[in-house]
Amino acid sequence: MDEPFDIKNLQMTRGFIVDRFILIENLICTIISQHYLGHPDADFVVNVLGNELSNFGFKRNILEHIIEEKEDNKKQIDNLHKLNRIRNLFCHSTPKVKEDKEKENKQIFFTNPKSPKNQDKELNMEKELEKFKELHAVVSSWLINIAKAKGVTGFP
């Protein structure tokens, strides 16, 4: 991102992250449905896995129990944790405003949730977004491969 974060590009980024995260959750739901029902079942996905009490952690936990215990799988589960952390950061954190008097504009930033004692410590939002994009590409590919291995069809 060439320009500093402001409210407009924060809103666009939040939308981007939510949209991409929904894709991840849908892949996980498809894998779970295939594993337990033998096919992706829209009613099961919508009414059971899409229920408001069926949160991401619940679905990730099911996924962990139905995949093989291999080192790469453990790494990708860890990447799911990281994706969720970044998603939560962008979707639930309240941005703070920093005025740049030289450029006569206001920039926004998040404080680092890992260091609550130092609330002025800024988190680099551009780096977090890039991490999200990189992790999303890797995790999506991994989930598609799991879905294919379980017999789900329709992927390129």
SSE run:
HHHHEEEH
What is the CA-based Rg, rounded? 18 Å
Domain module count: 1
The percentage helix is 55-70%
* Fraction in beta strands: 5-15%
**What would the average pLDDT be, to the nearest integer?**
87
DSSP helical segment count: 5
What's the overall geometry?
Answer: elongated
Total beta strand runs: 3
How is the main sheet built?
3 strands, antiparallel
Low-confidence stretches: none
Tell me the distance between the termini: 30 Å
Give a description of the structure.
- It is a single chain.
- It contains 5 helices and 3 strands, in the order H-H-H-H-E-E-E-H.
- The chain has 156 residues and is mainly alpha-helical.
- The chain has one domain (7-149).
- The mean pLDDT is 87.
Explain the layout of strands and helices.
Elements: H1 7-37, H2 42-49, H3 56-66, H4 71-92, E1 96-100, E2 105-111, E3 122-123, H5 125-149
Antiparallel strand pairs: 1-2, 2-3
Helix pairs in contact: 1-3, 1-4, 1-5, 4-5
